[in-house]
Every structure is written in C-alpha cells, then in structure tokens.
Amino acid sequence: MATWLPAVLLVLQVATASSEEPILEFSTDTPINNVAQDLQTGRVYLGAVNAIYQLNSSLYLEARAETGPKKDARGCTPPVSTCQDLKDTNNTNKLLLVHSDNGSLIVCGSLYRGICSLLNLTNVKEQIYYSDSKGERTYAASTEEHVSVVGVMATLEIDDKPFSVFLVGKGYGSMDSSKLISTRIVQNYRDWVVFESIIEASTVQAVPFVPKYLHDFRFAFKNDNFVYFLFSRTLGGTDNKNYSFVSRLCENDNHYYSYTELQLSCGVKNRYNKVQAAYLTDPGKVLAQAMSESGEYGNVREWDKVLFVVASSEEGTIESALCMYPLKNINQKLLAIVTACYTNNDLQNVLFYNPFNFCDAYKCGADFLPSPLASRQEFALRANPVFIRQNLLTAVAVAVENDHTIAFLGHNAGEVIKVHLSSHPEAYNPGPGYKTSGYINKNLFFDKTQAHLYITTEKKITKVPVQACHLKSDCQSCVAQRDPYCGWCVLEGRCSRRSECSRAEEKNGWLWSPDQQCVKIVSFHPPNLSCLKSQQVPVHLVVCLWVCVSVTLYNCSLGREDCSLCKNADPKYQCVWCTQTSSCVYELLCASREPEECPDPQITDITPRFGPLKGGIAVTIKGSNLGIQKDDIKNITVAGVPCKHLREQYSVSTSVVCEIGPTMINKTGEVEIEVGRGKKGISTKAVRFTYRNPVAQSVSPERGPKAGGTILTITGMNLNTASKHDLQIMVHNVPCQVPSDHLTVNVQYGKQTTTTISSAFQFSSNPSVSDHQPRSSFIWSVLFVSLPTQPLHHYSHLYTDQYCFKSTFKNDTSIKFVSPAVNESQFFRAYVQLDNLQTELTPFEYHPDPTFDRVFHARKRVFVVSQGRGFSKAMTAKEAQAFVGDAQCNVNTLQDDKLFLDPPSTVPSARSKRQRRDTSSDPLDLVIKFGNGEWLVGSVRYERKYNLPLPIIIPAVLVPMLLIIAISLVCYRRKSQQAEREYEKVKHQLENLEESVRDRCKKEFTDLMIEMEDHSNDISEGRIPFLDYKTYTDRVFFLPSKDGANDVMITGKLDIPESRRATVTQALNQFSNLLNSKTFLINFIRTLEGRPDFNARAKVYFASLLTVALHGKLEYYTDIMRTLLLGLMEDYVHSKNPKLLLRRSETVVERMLSNWMSICLYQYLKDSAGEPLYKLFRAIKHQIEKGPVDAQVKKAKYTLNDTGLLGDDVEYVVLTLQVLVQGEGPDITPVKVLNCDTISQVKEKIIEQVYKNLPHSQRPKVDSVTLEWRPGSTGQILSDLDVSSQKEGRWRRINTLAHYNVRDNATVVLSRVQHTQQSYEQNHENHEERNALLEDDKVFHLVRPADELDEMKSKRGSIKDKSMTKAITEIYLTRLLSVKGTLQQFVDDFFRSVLCSGAAVPPAVKYFFDFLDEQALRHENVDEETIHIWKTNSLPLRFWVNILKNPHFIFDVHVSEVVDASLSVIAQTFMDACTKTEHKLSRDSPSNKLLYAKEISTYKRMVDEYYKGIRQMVSVSDQEMNTHLAEVSRAHTDKLNTQVALHQLYRYASKYYDGIIMSLDEDPAAQSKQLTLRLQQIAAALENKVTDL
C-alpha cells in the first residue's frame, strides 16, 4: 500500500470532471402499450397505438410499421370484407414478444378480434406472416382496451420434436375467446396453423369460469422448465376486492395437468392486495444474507431467484409497497397445494376454487378438472413489505452492484426512485433523467450491459445511466449518497463505479460504506517535500467518520520568478520572497525574514518602439517587479511624455500597458515607471521610444475589380509606426460603387493620427472574357492563348487543375498566356484568375502532340507535302510555321493528316553552323513549329544538274563503298561490345527486380498479417459467418440451377390450391414411401437416364432433389448410391477408359456422390477446414482491395490471375473517410478507401466495415443506401454517374472520389433509401437521368478500352511498336509474384487443413476410399494410378475445388468477380497437385501455370501422403457409417424442404410416366410388390390422372 499512498496527497482535492452522459429519449405520436428488447442485438421495440417502432440501443429510430387505424367493427369476424358498419378503429398493441430463433417479432393488436402477425426483427416494416382467414382458433389477444395480455416464449415437444410456442395470459373481454391461458404455435404443423391454440384444457378455459373472476395479468416469465403468470383477480360475485396470484405449469405440459395457482399476500392482512408489476432476478449477496437472517424467507442464497413484486392498496388512500418472494418458496407452496389435493389433508383450507365437489370424484391434475387448483388466503405465501410509498408504484427493475441490490421503482407521479435493499432499505436520489412527465408504466428494464435503464411513460421512452457518480466532486458528497454504484476512487480522485476505478481491488482503493467513511490524515512526515526530487515519504492514513482533511503540495517558486509575483501568491500557502536565494520559497525554508517591499521595477522591453506625434496608441511595457496589483502603478512617462495607464490590460509584475500622449516635436527617450511608494524603473538606452509621424505617398495598383482581392501596396516614410493592433487602412468609407470615383486611401495609426493619399484607388467593373483563341492545345507543345477582356487589372494567371502560368502580355483589351504543358492527354479545366475573379475557359482541351510520317521532296517552286496525324487538332495554318534550312516556308494548307508548304524560291542556307561549313551537305532540314513545339520531320533536297566525266564517277562511287564497309565493320564490333554491356545491364536489372519483388512480398505480407489480426480475432470469437445447414445445402445443390436463388427448392413455395393441399400432402407422403422401395427407385433412375431428352442439367437437378427427399434416411440413400456406382464402374472398367470414372457429373449417381460428400463434410468444414478457407478468402479480398479495381472491366492491380490484371499503372491515394451512419447513433467509423474507387466501391467498403459483425445477407445492399459527402455546412450526394461525369469522346468516366475532390479524413453520411412514394419518384428521375447519360455514351472506370479509331490506328502501327506495347504490358506480371508471395502462407494453411490425414479425416472419406480400394481389387486392369485418379475425382475435384471456387456455398459472404478470378488460380493449382501427370512447363505456358510451378511438387507429395495416410487408418464399418448418417438425418432433415422436393421429383415421374410404368411391368420384383399400382394411385391423387384403375 505504501507505493500509492504519496499519490493520495495529490488527488484528495482533485475531482476529475467527467463529461456528463447525455440522456437519450424517443417520443411517439400515440400511447406506448408494450416494450420488448432483443437481448442479442440490444434493439428496443415499442408497441404503440397504431404503430410498431424499431429502435437501436441508443433509441434512434431504425424502422416504423403502421398498424392502424383500420376499418373494423366490434362484432366482426375477420376477414372484414364481409362485415357491416365498418369504421376507422385504432389498433392498441396487446402483446409484443421477441422470437430470436427465427428472427421475428410477434405482434398482437386489438383489431380483428386480436389477430397476431410476425414482423422481421431487423426491419419491422417487413411482414413475415399475417393471415385473417384462419378463424377463431388464431385469435390470441383481446379487442378491449382494459383487458391486459401477457406472454412468454417457450418450447413444447410434439411428436418428440421441439417446437417454439408462446403462452398467453389474457383477461376476459366480452367479445374475446374464453381461453384464460393458451399455448400458440408459431409455425404450421399437422392441421395446426400459425398462432393457433394447440392445447385445449377445461381447467383454465371453461366458459362459466372466466367472467366470474375478473383477471388482470401483469407479468409472465419462464424459469427451470416452468412457466409462471402473475395476476390479480376478484373473488367473484359481488366482492370486487382484488387478490394477487402466481400460477405455474410445466413448460412441456401438453394438457395443462400441472397448472396450479398460489395466492400471494403482501403486508399485514394482505393490505397491498393488487399486483402492479414484478421483476425476477438474483438477490445479491448482501440482500440474501439479510433475508436469511430475518427468518421470514428461510435460507436464501445469492444465486436463488427472487420475485420482486410491487402491489397497491385499494383501502382508502393510494399506497404501494415492494414485497419479495423467493421462487423456491413459491414452488414449495405450489407443491403443497397439489399434495393436499392428492392426500385430502386440510383440503378446504387449501383450495380456493370449489364450485363443485370434484376432489371426491376425480383425480387431481387431470384434464377434466372443472376448475384449476388454487390456494385460499389462509394458505397464501405471505411477505412483509420492504419499502412503502405514499403513491402508486407502477414499475420495478432490480439490479445487483458489488453484491448490493438496488431496486428502481417507478410511480404514477412520473419519477423513478432508487432503493438500496438491505436489512434497512433506504431510498435516495437517483440523479438526472429519472424524473419525467407522465405516468411510468410497467415497461422498466435495463440494457444489455446493465449500465443503463429504460424508462417508459405514456408517449416517451428514455435511456438513463443507472448512476450519476460523476456529479459528486469530493469524497464526502460521493459516499453521502449511500449509492452502491458510487464510491470514491482514491488514486484517481473522483466518484465512480467500482468497475471504472483502475485499482479498486487494492485495499482502500475504492471507498464505499453506508457509514459514509472517507480518508483522514493524522500524521505526515517530513513536513516538507520537494517537487523536483523523488523521495520515499512515510504517510499514515486512518479512516475517520464524517470529517475529512485535505492536504495539498504547493510549489511556491513555480511561475513566481520575482518578488512581486511571490507576494501575490495566496497567503494560505505561506510563500515568501527569500533575499538570500532570490527566489520564492515556503516560509519555513527561508533563513531570513521576507522584506516588506520588493526591489525597484525593471523594464526589459517595450512594444512598439515608434509612435505618432499625436499619440493615441498603446505601448506595452514588459519587465519585472512592476507591482502586485493595478493600483500600484502610480506614474508612467514615455520619452518624457505622460502615458495613461490602461488598467484592464495590467498583468501582475510582468506587463503594463499605457496609452501615450501627444507631443509637438519628433523626439526619442527612455520609458520611466513609478510603482508603489516611489520606486522607479527606467529603461536602458537599448530600450527607447521615438515619436515620429508616418507619411503615406502612393498606392499601387490604382484600381481593382469590385470582386475584391486586389493587393494594395502603400509606399511612404515611417510607415512602421505603432503596432498592427492600432493600425487601420480604409479605401474611403463608402460602399463599393462601379465605376467609382478615384477614392482616398486612409492609413490610421491609433486614435489620433491619420495619413491619406488622395484619388489613389478606383473600383471598376469586373473584367469579362469574351472569347479566347485557340480553343485547344497540344500536350507538350506550348501555345499562346489570347483572351479579349474588358477591362484588365494587375494580377492574372492561367491555370488548369494541376498547372499554373502567369500572363506574358496584357493590356486593357487582351491578355496572352502560355498554355501549360501537361503530362497526358486528358480533360483539364482551364481558368483565368483576375484578382478575386475566376473565369473558366470553355471549351479548352488538350490533344496529343502531332506525329509526322513522311515528307514528299520538292523541286524549286513546287509544294512540299508532309504527312502525319493530328495537325489541325490545336493549330491553324496561320499559327503553324515551317522552315527549310534557315528560310521560312509559307504554310499553304493545314489538314489533320497533311501539311502543304510553299518552299523558298531560292536554295536556302543550312540552319546549323556545321551544315554551313559542310558545303557537300545537299539535303536541308525541314522543321515544323506549332507554338513552342518544334519537330524535325525530314529533309528537302534541291536537285542540281551535274555533268561529270566517267573517270571521276568511278572513284566517287568506289571510295564511299569501301569507306562504308570499313565503317560497318567498326560499327559491328562496337555493337557487339555494346550488346554484351546491355546484357550485363539487363541481368543486373533483373537481379534488382527480383530483390525488389522479394522485399515487396515481405512488406505486403507483413502488412497483410497485421490487417488480418482483426479477422483472426473475429474468428477466435466465433464470427466466421457459417451458413446454416439448410442454406448450405440449398446453395450447393440448387444455386447452380437455371433458376438460381429463385429455384422453388430454395424459396420453398409451391402453388397448390388450399382445397387440394391436404390431398397433395397425403399423396406426396405415399410417393415418399414409394421412393423408399429400392426396386422402384433403381427402375425410376434408369428409366430417366435412358431417355435422350434427360440431359446433364436435368440429371444434376434430379439427383439433388433425390438427396433432399431421402435425407431422412441417408443410410438408404448411401445404399442406392453404392448400387448405382457398382454398375457405373463395370461400364467404365470393361467398355471404357477406367481413368475417366467420376471425372464429370454425366450420370445421376455421380451427382449423388457430390451431394453425399457435401452432406458428410459439412461438420468438418465448420470444425476444421472452414477457418483457413475463410482466412484465405479474406486475405485475397483484402489484398485485391488494397489497390485499384476497375469496376467496369473487372480487373485489379493486385491479383493472381493474369487475365484479370490491370495493365495500367493507375495513380491512387489511400483515404480515410469518417463515416456516420444515419439513424444508428453518433459513432463515427473510420474506413479506408482509394480516391480512384467508384462511389459503389466506396459504399461496399463502408458497408463491409460498418456492418462487419453482420453476415453479408443481413447487411444493406449497395443500391439501398446513399452516400452523402459533407465538406462543410451543406452536403452532396455522391453517385457513379451524374451530369458532372467526365466525358472523353463517346466514353464517359464513372465518378470516383477524386472526381468529387473528396479529401482525406472527409466526413460522409451513409443513409438508407426510404421506400416512399417520393423516394420512388426521385429514384425514377435518377434512373431517367442515368439512362439519358448513357444513351449515346460508353462507360469506363480506370482503363478506357480502345475505340474504333484507336483500333484502326493501331493496325497502321509498326510491328516494333506493337511488340514494345506488349512488353510494357507484361512488365506488370511481376505483381502476380508479389500477390502470390503475400498470400502464400494462407494458401499453404488451407492445403494443409484439407490434406491432413489422421484423426481429423471425416469418416465418410475413409469409408468411400476403402470402397474404391475394394472395387479396384476386383478388377485386374485397375492399377495404382487409376485408384489415385478415382480418389481425386471423388473428393478433391468433386468437393474441395467446388467449395474453394465458391466460398459463398459455406459462408454468408459475397464473392466478387476479381476475387473469383484469384480463387480460380488457386483451385487450378489444387487440381494440378492432385494429378499424377507431370506438368512440363515452357516459356509459352500460361502465367497462371507458371505462378505456382515451384510449389506443385510439394503439394503433390502432400496429396500422396494424404491418400497413403487414409489407407493406413482403421476401417469404418457399415454400422459405424450408418450410425453417423442417421445422426446427420436426425439433426437436419426437418429443416429441409422435403415436401417440395417430393413434388418436384413427381414432375419427372409424371413426365416419363409411361416409360416408368413399362419398366415396372417388366420387372418381376416390382410386380410382386405391386409398385405399378402404387404409382397409379399416387398419380390419380396428385393430378387426377386417368389410370387403369
């Protein structure tokens, strides 16, 4: 304890001010009837009049469902379309229950005789079930407002199967059913329909019984397989006094035999006789001990359940009390009631209901008992009130904190009070938010963390914290509350909960006691302690009553460097100025006495150093010992001139501010200050003040636009006089008028001095740009852009989105700019900036620089023609220039691909000095200039006529030839040496590339592992979104079908008329029995496979239907599969290539095998292989989304698939968006995105991060949300395409974050699309706008595909250009290596989990592999390689490859196309590893094959060892396999759509009916079993088929 005691001294006086938690509330339009809470999600559901509200835990509205008013009549039996006198009727909510097992909310209202409905828990606007045509058996609630209804969820076994039900306790209404207690089923079963009462028991449903005793149900709960109801009722007859009862029955009682009632008595003579509300919870250690010691409740342990009941008195004034009933005492009394009936002991004193003398004639607890068993008042369970209140208590909730029990009691005055339940219960103030307006109803409950309390009044629900400890700032007031929630956290010096105090477990670390004890210091040694030196100090603390002593350590010298500051310290700290040390110290630490007066003041600086002669400016004097208070300043002079003390700006001892007075002449002098009793301080010569007058002479520029922004430069003398706080500059003092007169510019110094410049500045009209030429520019060629303007001003710039250039020439009517050179051909917006006025130049675009192909030579006075591309894109004939040698040509005609020039009439000279010296240089350079761009496009030769003799011609030809040969030999040798150097250089570059790829892999892998830690944590917490068995089988079996997710096997919806449903169901059951005949089923399958129109797709679908239909008997299904496989093997071994067996799903049995493997390996996927597969999927998805992904062409920068590789180097920036989800609280979620992401991609990443704890199917869809960017006070809706989308020719770019200029840490709001009529019309308009945008345009994202013009131009390109383009594209293949290296560990982990032999191998794999080995031994031509192929085809290629390529078959995830492309590469690698064939790779092999070429051999060894290990395992017997299959059938069959599968199977039987009948007639075994007759009977029942019957 000694280690923390010194810290106590520092915190005893410090109260940490924690921010007060806001009070959350939600108001409704109509009264609230019921409230329900989903304990899994924390959502709160309000059942109000005419509405159901869905709120999150912070009471933000998520959804609302309207339930009324609707047309209804009091005596009407639904449906109301047949009723008379209908009128608008309010719908009062009578019952609200959360059914988490199937994700529904049970809602029962007062309309339509109390019919209920099922709403979606995640969106109450979505109705799951409702029917008003099932009759009185489904009327669960009451139509009358005063009749109370309670309910509780339970489980009931029917036919040895558990069913979810809810029990309803309901009072009597004149139009209601007579069922006091009823059990309602929530699914259709047998002849029962949803919400039907499935138990008929006369004991609680007899007609004479209900109206005689008026029941008021208040509470229902379940505990230890019992269901309890708490209610009050009258005695019947003329006695209207209420009595409180608790009733109990077994949860699994199918007849209500166990229903028994016990009267509860609260107070002397049952004074508090009418129960109002109740709460069931543990009592807590302290209360349990107090209850046991009282002797009233027996022995109560802290884990026993106690029923806390608030009841009111009906005698005289309204008075209420809280009573406690241990649940075990209630159960003991109920047992005594039943025992008394059996033994007939003191029966009349026990039984309350006794209208008939039934106990002599009937056994107790029988269904035919005319009345329930209940106790009289003499046998009631009594309890004394623990708390009494002089008004009506209406609600109760109880919590345990630090072994203490706190009751929260609501009453009719609109307040919730807290009561500490102990041997002496005491009420105390709960804190803010607990007092509301209106009646507190019974819906009082805690949130999931027990840290907040929900309080419900008539039209409002409020969420308040259970404690308000932070409002108490000291120990005494904290413990004085006597609130078990609040204690004094000693080391932190604040009032807090024990759980929030960091070292509360240490002795005296957290102080709380009902005696209000705090810490008291009785001794402290040594008496002084240095703050700068660490030292162990013995401190003795004792606990005292009522009084606390504060001890404070104080450092006198800190911030008190001079005497005046020291004397200004609070006297209670006893600080003195010690002259010996010249410091401020504690009084007892100074050997000498403190001087009565401080030293003379010292001046160290003044600001400013210059001022005008008229004065009026403030001067700040800085120094030390400048007084203790403002009255100490007696006199101030500056340069001999009095200075007025500005008292309000005085700072003790260190700073004095005064306003200087006027003087007549320029002068310089010291500053003098007089303090206290004549003590004076004078500044040094280095700190002096000068009086002088500023003179302003001119202003530049002389005019500027009314838009402002013009920077004025004022020139003159002595302008730095005074400080900027005293300086004001004004252009006249009138509003801006255009055009204005020449205005005066005023420069004011302080209050008295002003210098002016007359007629110095004029406001003129804003300039306007009327035209600009040219309207386009080349990329690198700099052109002059001319803009006519009126008028022009001083500052002007031309800039695009990225580049800025100043003007090169300007006058009042025009400006010339040099167009900026840009680095690529794309759309740039161009602007002219004139002071504060910005004007966009439209149109202005950049084109690729022109290219030149060839030049036609010309003779004198003949045209020179130059051919190329792009000449006229951004240049006219007048702007183009051409030169032959040093002479300029006339540009005659300028076309896009041709340039016609008039050459000089005389032969020009060469442009370069070298050519001028070389007189033999006949060809002259042809140079074209566009703007500042200059191109040497060829040469022009002027032909001359020569007549040379033959002796001169021959040497002239031979000598150059010999020279050329010599030069060629020298060049060849030099080229060879250069090639060798280039080879070494390329080799070095490849080594560097390999090193960089290795480093990049390492870095990417490290980053990925760090990012994957969060996913690993989610997985360790069980957050892998595994699909349930039904969804898994639906997707594996039927998702690949032609109807996909709409397949009838997935939806489970059959269109069968109600009138024929019973007949069809019975016939399908007969058909199921027929399928269980092996003779029939084999004939059925072989008949279908013999038909030519029974194609491969039909075989696959038929096999999946058969799997579902026979799922209840998987051992029989396995037997059928073995039989068919044996026949298939015989065909392949004897007449076909045996290695092709099971290679494809060309037969029914091959698909049956696939389904059988899927069924048997489901649990193995969940237990073992699922986690590494999920990690691999998440790692691939994360790695791909780290870089750009083209949303249009589905290509990514980071991928494993070369065909899906983004072949362009897209620039991007990682942004972090601060995401606020509308309607889900104020929490902001940071989400990392790329600025090149489309808006849809950004939405996907936001949904992925915000709803990461929800599976994909429960997350909002991208189209169902909107994204709003809030850069300031206004917001902007972001979308993929809108009117601002950039357009390049016929191509339109999809909008990205960069398009909207969204920056890092920007705030965006994600909101749901509201499906109202207005939103529908708005969406319709948006779709019309989008269609209009796309009508004539093609859309691209990152990479624009080559259009027709580009393709045509590419055909003209040279072979060299094409090869260079290909080489450049393939450079990006190194990214495959980087991604592969990053993901390698995840791939290896998955392969190891799948190819791991031993105890982890599913029994089905061992069983089937042994079956293949046995069959191979029976055939001589089956070698080891063939067995290997059989096993590979049956398991890895048939099951694992399917799951690997489709993770959404086993997980609730979305697999995008780019992720699917990478998974396909890994799946192909897995397939290659499972084959025996050696893969010979070459330079022409696909990149995907080359990528994992090195690892294939390792994986092949793993496969061989896996097969070998399985062969060595202990065999799985038929009995063991059948036992395992039976367990699978029993666990999952009831979840599948078996009836639908039978119906679909029969469609095949109907289609091929004649062939099946013929096959059965030819089979003696079928004839003996009369299978033909049975099929005919089924056909007659199902479709009224005319048969031989």
TrEMBL record:
Signal sequence interval, chain numbering: 1-19
Coiled coil ranges: 969-996, 1310-1337
Transmembrane segments: 952-972
Gene Ontology biological process terms, A to Z: axon guidance; negative regulation of cell adhesion; positive regulation of axonogenesis; regulation of cell migration; regulation of cell shape
This protein's GO CC annotations: plasma membrane; semaphorin receptor complex
Membrane topology: Single-pass type I membrane protein
Subcellular location(s) of the protein: Cell membrane
Main location (coarse class): membrane
SUPFAM superfamilies, per the entry: E set domains, GTPase activation domain, GAP, Plexin repeat, Sema domain
Protein keywords: Cell membrane, Coiled coil, Disulfide bond, Glycoprotein, Membrane, Receptor, Repeat, Signal, Transmembrane, Transmembrane helix
Domain Sema: 7-466
InterPro entries: Ig-like_fold, Ig_E-set, IPT_dom, Plexin, Plexin_cytoplasmic_RasGAP_dom, Plexin_RBD, Plexin_repeat, PSI
Similarity section: Belongs to the plexin family.
Protein's name in the database: Sema domain-containing protein
